[in-house]
Amino acid sequence: MMRRAANALDRTVDLLVIGGGVYGAWIAYDAALRGLSVILVERTDWAAGTSSASSKLIHGGLRYLEYGHLGLVRKALVERRRLLRLAPHRVRALRFLLPVHRDARAGRIALELGLSLYDLLAGELGGPHAHRSYGREALLARCPFIERSGLVSGFSYSDASEDDARYCLELVDGAIGAGAAAVNACEALALTSDSGGRVFGARVRDAITGSEHEIRAGITVAAAGPWTQALVTRDPRDFPVRLTKGVHLVMPPLPMPEAMLLTTRSDRRVFFLIPWYGATLLGTTDTDVAPGTSETTVSAADVDYLLRAVEERCPGLGWRRRHVRGSFAGVRTLRAEGSKSPSSVTREWSLESPRPGLLVPVGGKLTSARVEAAATVARVQLALGRTQTGCPTAERPFPWAPPGDFDTWEDTTVRAGVVLGMDEEVARACARRHGTTTSEVHALVRERPEL
Ligand SMILES: Cc1cc2nc3c(=O)[nH]c(=O)nc-3n(C[C@H](O)[C@H](O)[C@H](O)COP(=O)(O)OP(=O)(O)OC[C@H]3O[C@@H](n4cnc5c(N)ncnc54)[C@H](O)[C@@H]3O)c2cc1C
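# flavin-adenine dinucleotide complex -> structure
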C-alpha cells in the first residue's frame, strides 16, 4: 500500500478520523462508501495500537453472559456470523475445548445453560456449530495434557478467529479504494476549535517530512484508543476512562487443532490458548494502567502469572520461561465504572460527544467495531445535515474477499502457490492473509523466485 500524504493534508473534508486502529479503519471505510470526503490519520502505522495486540477472536464473549451483558453478547454473535460470511479468507471458525474442574469458575450445569444460551443467541442451537459435552475420559483423550485431578467433564463450542492487524490493513485499503485519504506516520498534535469551542479538525504533523498541516473537517472522530483521553482533554476528569493492560505470550503449538478456554486457579479469571500461525497464544491478563499512560510493556509478573495459570490447568504441556517465543501487550479503553475489578468492567461500546463537532468512540471490541462504526457514521451524517443513507458494510464482502465459492478459490490459489514453490501450508496461510491480493504476492514470487 503506497503512502500518499501530498495533497491529502491541508484540506477541508466532511470527516477527519484520528487513529488507524479497527474503529478508525471501519469508520473511514464506511464513511467513504457513503460518499463523504474523509481523511484518516494514524500516528505510527495501521493497527499499531490495541488492534494488533488482541486475542484475535471474533467472538460473542462467553464470560460476559455471567455479568448479564446479553445485549453485548447478542450483538457480537450476530457480527460473528456476518463476518464469517463476508470475510471467509480472514475470519475463520474456531472450535474451543472447555474443561470443567471441580474448583472452576462455573460448574457443569451453569456452563451447560450458558453454552445453550450462547448457541441460542448465535442462532446455532442444535446446529453443526452448537456446543457439545464431553465425558471426562473423552476429554482427556482429546487433550491428555490437562490437569486430571478435579477434572469432572468438559465441553466444546464454536467461535472464530482472525489476524487483527491484517484485518485493519484490509479495511484501510478498502477506505482508500472508496475514495478516502489515509495517511500513516501522521500524528494529530491538537484538535482545533473556534471561539465557541466547536472542534473543526486538527493540527497534524507528517513524521516523514516533518511538516505540520491543518486539516479542517465538518466532524472530527477521535478513535485514538488508549490515547484518546490525552487528545480530547488536558484534564482527565473531563473525560474519564479506565485503561487496562492485557498480555499474551507466544508459546509452542498445541498437539491439537482446537483452542481452549480455561480459568485460572488463583483468581478464577478466564484465559485462552489459541492456535496462531503455527504457535499458540496464551493470554490474557487484565490489570489497571495508570490514567494518562498507555504502557504496553510485558512485565516479569505478567509472564509468571500466565505460566502459572497454564501449569495449574495444563501441566502436561510443561511450558516454562524458556518456551516463551514472544510476547505482546495491548491496552483496553473501558468506561470508568468506579472500583470494579478490571475483568468485570463492561466492554459495552458508547459514542461520546465531549465537544461540539467531535465524536469519540469508547470501549467496544474488534468483533463489533463494524456495526458501531456504522452507528458513528450515521451520527456524522446527521451532524453534517446530510441525508441518512443505509449502512453500506452490512452485506458488502470485505475488500479482499474472493468472489464466489471460497473453498474453490482457496484450492485454486493454494495450488498456484505450490506450483511457484511454496509449501502447501505457507500457500494456504498466504491466501488467507492476502485474500484477492494474493495474486500480487504470487507475481512477486514469480519475478523473484529467491523469495
Ligand atoms: C489484550 C486484549 C485482547 C483483546 N481481544 C479481543 C478479541 O479477541 N476480540 C475482540 O473482538 N476484541 C478484543 N479486544 C478489544 C479490541 O482489541 C479493541 O476493542 C480494539 O482493538 C480497539 O481498537 P481502537 O481502534 O479503538 O484502538 P487502537 O487499536 O488502539 O487504535 C488507536 C490508534 O490511534 C493511533 N493514535 C493515537 N494517538 C494518535 C494521534 N494523536 N494521532 C493519530 N493517531 C493516533 C494509535 O497509534 C492507534 O493505532 C482485546 C483487547 C485487548 C487489550
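# post-check
The longest strand covers residues 151-161.
The mean pLDDT is 94.
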